Amino acid sequence: MPIKTQLWHPDTCDRPSCVIEETYDTADPGGPMTMSAVLRTCPAHAAVADVDLYNVLYKNPDSDQKRKNLSEKYFVETDALNLNKTQPDGTKAWKDGVTYGWAFSGVPCRPTFGSGRRVGRRLCGLNRLGR
After folding, report:
1. How many other C-beta atoms are found inside a 10 Å radius of the C-beta of residue 117?
2. Which H or E run includes 128?
3. Residue 104 in contact with residue 64, Cβ under 8 Å?
4. How many domains does the chain have?
5. Chunked in runs of 10, what are the mean pLDDT values of the chain (131 residues)?
6. Beta bridge partners of 6
7. What range defines the domain where residue 67 resides?
8. Neighbouring C-alpha atoms within 13 Å toward the C-beta of 106
């Protein structure tokens, strides 16, 4: 059961981004990633203790990654919004011409939670859809 490491640069961080070393077991492809070290902290997460950073970025229900990813999932998978198309394999994708963007601002108001950072979302190309 070989243990491997990889570096993660979260796309939700300010630049230069946080750098997290993660470990995983190659014998368990669906197994969990765990944080083994914080190598660098971005300006937005500078006040977050190293032991709490992985939770703020990824594991907490209100983590930066979950808020970014779940909001995009909602927009692309909600048929009533008329923003998606169904792929041949049944998954949803953005309609041609629609793009989704996001940006975080602020710093965590509580160092152990990500909820103090605001995520702004932008949908472009809607005028081509008659909206």
Report:
1. 21
2. none
3. yes
4. 1
5. 89 91 89 92 91 90 89 93 93 92 74 65 70 50
6. 22
7. 3-129
8. 13
